[in-house]
Records
---
Amino acid sequence: MSDTGGGFNDPDAVWVYYIDADPACGQGVGGTSGVALLPANDLRGLVGKPNVPPCIGDPPDTGGVCRWIGGLGHELGHALGLPHPPGCDQGNCSAEAFFSLMFFGYTVYPDTYFLDENKVQLRASPFFDERKIRRRTDCRGEPLN
């Protein structure tokens, strides 16, 4: 990160790094303390290329471009301080929490949402501001109303 000037807990920026490397089987990447780190598979996914499963014998993730945009949103949420919903990591997750962006919802993006407590936390962040954005299509290329 020294080449970019980025780092953890930067009061002026939140950093997202895409690295041209694949994690080993069982190794994770993610976001915390103002930094999100995403591997080469996320880059492949964003441009519609097949990904490389980290573990031998695992099938590739075929979720499409929206899944990888959702993954960025999820990890950026962690970089901004959002946790997984309470209980979800222990297998005790409500349906609402399960499909929120900060848990499994990244796989069904854009058909996901932030929980109310996530919205409160983001509104308090100096890096977040609500805006109405006019888009013509979503990540699937479907028209928006």
---
Amino acid sequence: MRSPLRDNAVTQSGLAQAEVNLRAARAFVLQSMAEIWKDLCAGATISVEQRVTIRMASTNAIAKAREAVDFAYHAAGATAIFENHPLERRFRDMHTVTQQLQARSSHFETVGAWMMGAASDLTFV
């Protein structure tokens, strides 16, 4: 490119959106865990609703982290494909996480079904 990425309006906008999505996802995880931890410390046992909240927050956080890494990887262009580029390993690591059980998009189906009172398999919640 003729000018640095920092001067590109599309890149600037994408970076801001990635940042806000990451912060919002992180806040949801931390807020949810703090509330649940408070209840557990008071002697309560974890409820299905709390398990659903953890699943929803954690799956969302993984998805938003992947989106942020994808943004950075694509913004960097072809240089990011080489092993000596810092984004190459981060891209690979993030996508490895998304292939694990914890990141399944189908968790949102389970959560949504539970929220609507429909039959749902809560095995992984």
---
Amino acid sequence: MLGINARPKVAKVLAPVVARLARAGVTPDMVTLTGTLGSIAGAVFLIGTGHLFWGAFTVTLLVLLDLLDGALARARGGGSLFGAVLDSTGDRAADAAIFGALAWWFSGAGDNRLLVLLALICLVLGVLTSYVKARAEGVGLSADVGIVERTERLILVLTGTGLAGLGVPYALHVALWVLLVGSAITVGQRFAAVHRESRGRPLPAASPVPPPPPAP
């Protein structure tokens, strides 16, 4: 929800940067790949090795590139279907790397099984949040609701991770508990929205499979 509401203001701030990138020939897919691969590397090699503050800081900077690719696509005349799929896939990969790195660290040297469990549950709920929306849109419905979407998810986990890296007691515990509850509510909200909208609407019929060509 924060991402949708803040997007127009952020677009104004980023407009000069987007214009320079467009003139330099940078493509949205380049930005998406840079942000995704950088976020994964920061999560694995910093958060996953216990450098929680610098990991959260690095991933936050790279995640912000996600704000540029869409704006750059619009500046270049519109995005592509491949770019849309690449962007969505990159988001899921970066999210998985963050929570996976937390689970890795706290299952080893970090030695906190509760945080491992919380991180894994939050990862699963994040996947469900995205999947319900994607599956709903695939059958012509809308599930663009929820109190915790990707922006809120990243704010909570990266803030909690960064504060934990600075030595703030239970900062990550609180962040993950809030994220867990909020994500569970969001999944419920999306299922409820799909149920309301789908009432009385049959599943679209599958397209008939064309017969194979005759043998020569």
